[in-house]
Design goal:
Helices cover about 70% and strands about 5% of the residues. The two termini are about 40 Å apart. It has a two-stranded antiparallel sheet. The protein contains 6 helices and 2 strands, in the order ααββαααα. A hairpin with a 5-residue loop joins strand 1 and strand 2. The chain has about 140 residues and is mostly helical. The chain is elongated and about 55 Å long.
Length: about 140
């Protein structure tokens, strides 16, 4: 739940007003969908198992880590690009696609992160709920008695 709380706090801070003019909503939906797809894929590639008490344990493998890093990395690269020489290219792209402000990009990137975290958590929770309970064999019962 910690990632949801952290991204939720960032969303509360950065999303005071979500721009809705021009293609801003389309940008939000597109990056939100990308985040959700990355989150679902990450959740599907996370290994789940039950321990001896019946609790479900999750372990992210290489594929899940790569997907998670792709989401975080893409947002980080965009931020670095925008502040280290890419601002003019982003501005031209924004004008060409009717994106109204820098705040529209901020909102879309925060929504992408929020969608990624929530989709990953929801996918893992759903998969955990579907994990079969351990079956006690008659040999185990005989040994325990």
């Amino acid at each position: 739940m910690l990632p949801v709380v952290l991204v939720g706090a960032a969303a509360a801070h950065y999303l005071r007003a979500i721009p809705t003019a021009g293609s801003d909503i389309a940008l939000d939906l597109t990056l939100g969908a990308v985040g959700a797809i990355l989150g679902i894929a990450c959740g599907l590639t996370t290994r789940l198992r039950r321990d001896e008490t019946g609790a479900v344990l999750a372990r992210a493998g290489v594929a899940a880590a790569i997907l998670w890093i792709a989401g975080i990395g893409s947002r980080t690269v965009f931020a670095l690009y925008s502040s280290h020489g890419g601002g003019a290219a982003i501005e031209r792209f924004s004008i060409a696609h009717d994106i109204t402000s820098a705040q529209a990009w901020v909102a879309a990137l925060v929504l992408m992160a929020l969608a990624e975290v929530i989709a990953r958590l929801a996918t893992i929770r759903l998969r955990a709920h579907q994990q079969p309970r351990a079956q006690v064999s008659t040999a185990q019962v005989a040994v325990e008695n």
